[in-house]
Amino acid sequence: MALSKLDNLYRQVILDHSQHPHHHGHLDTVDHEIELRNPTCGDVLQLEIALQDGKISQIAFSGEGCTISQASASMMTDAVLGKTPAQAETMIERFSDMMIGDRPDEDWEILEDAAILQGVQQFPARIKCATLAWKALHKALISDQHSAVSGQIVNHAETEETD
To answer: Mean of the per-residue pLDDT values for the chain?
Structure first.
């Protein structure tokens, strides 16, 4: 396949994920949630995660953002669904390495569709857009916070329910 056709295919996948995002919305039951903002371009992402049997059983995101941030969030949710938090953390690290150009010969297959975002590293201003969802996932998975504050994480599994 010619390089221009391959680039066009990658662009189409990114546009499809942005225009028809997977796992977009809210969950009924949430174990972890966070809202992160990219102050340089105004992207806002809310991420909700439910765990069951030590794995990410449900994940959803909402918010507003550019094509790259929305596509990356959609791809990330697809990639980590059904994974353990440790497996997700490995994927987060790989995605970060890919975005900064570390380990250029690495096989990025572990990232599934998100591997096509490797080209974003050529546009340094867009790297924060691509990594926003992945950073949110990392912060949510390592958090033990109990109250919802913008830019902060909530772990609902450990909060007491009040009626």
So the answer is: 84
